[in-house]
Amino acid sequence: MCLNWICQFEAFKHTTIAAGTLCYYMQPVFYILAGAIVLREKLSSRKMLCVIIAFCGMILVSGVLQTGLKLSELKGALYGVTGGFFYAMVVLINKYMKDISPLNTTIVQLALVSVIMLPYCYVTGLFAEATITARGMICLLILGFLHTGIGYIIYFDAVNRLPAQTVGILSYIDPVEAVLLSAFFLKEPVTVFTIAGAVMILGAAAYSELGENG
Length: 214
Known about the structure:
It contains 12 helices and no strands. By secondary structure, the protein is mainly α. It has one domain.
């Protein structure tokens, strides 16, 4: 999880948010393939098709087709892909901890990550660069408690209940959410590419689950 976070934010430092997000969301592909190899889950043609459609939708949502990916940003792209790989490993490892409650899993993992990240932040000079304000501290507490703590508890609980391939497919909904929320709250423009990509991602997730379960 530490390596996942480090790589993800390093990706955003070296490349655009769109390119970094696209590369980071190779994670579901890694996870689905790992589920087939490690967990011996059958990789159906339907699931594989949905992965491809969702990934193509992710390309449209990221906006990388409009902005392109410069050679100078390759470092950021590699950080993004590497972060996605480590996050897939986090989810995969949690599949083996079904005897531990999602609450305990979240508390222990986030506590360890916090301790391990302290020397990294010190060595890289992040503490010296940080400017702490009351508003920033409130946002940090909300982000840590609600979006990270509560979010991970719900996510790890779902991981233990669903097949790896299902978790991988549904993970593609995350970037669509990010685009829609940014458009609503930050008034960022939503293009035709964004809408088409969102439809492909949500459609692939629905087809993957409803098709096999219905």
